[in-house]
Please model this.
Amino acid sequence: MMDADSFRRALGSFPSGVTIVTTSDADGEAWGITVSAFCSVSLSPPLVLFCPAVSARSHEVLRRAERYAINVLRPEHRTLALRCAKAGADKFARAGFRTEGGVPVLPSALASLVCRASARYDAGDHSILVGEVESVQVNDGPPLVYFDREFRELSPAPLLAPPGLVDRYRDRPLCEADGADGSHAA
Ligand SMILES: Cc1cc2nc3c(=O)[nH]c(=O)nc-3n(C[C@H](O)[C@H](O)[C@H](O)COP(=O)(O)O)c2cc1C
Model:
């Protein structure tokens, strides 16, 4: 049994980063949409996916786009994230996007991945768009986080492992890190 509110709350319990996915249409007009449904898929070939809602004004343009950029946001981009989550907003005014290879890219983003469209799937009221990554720009710093329908920042204290060293813990027995009662060892 599942009601719509429980489903939303369950999805909201999973934290994500926040991206703005951008493209240009055949007339050269820039399009952008705030997206948290972004996911890595494959290292070789390098594939990622994102899911735009069929109801989004930019859906058709994104679905047809041969190339698009996925810009991973920082905490200071939260106002821009809200602007790009508003249909009909002037999303590109004073935001600092630069056009690279015909696609708008946000140079201040934590990371930008320029993708060539690889696969397109229907998925209920969303599409799943898989892109092959052609180029990336990566900067240092913390991400903007979306959790429980709010923007958040990461706590600076890493749990269990220093940042980037999580792999070191991969082969340890689970019980070393996690108590049967759900408690976590320091
Ligand atoms: C934090 C956040 C995450 C979002 N994630 C998605 C998403 O993954 N997919 C989606 O279609 N819309 C998502 N949205 C909503 C769209 O950004 C919003 O519907 C936007 O108006 C679409 O723009 P458009 O109608 O001009 O295309 C998100 C909004 C916010 C604030």
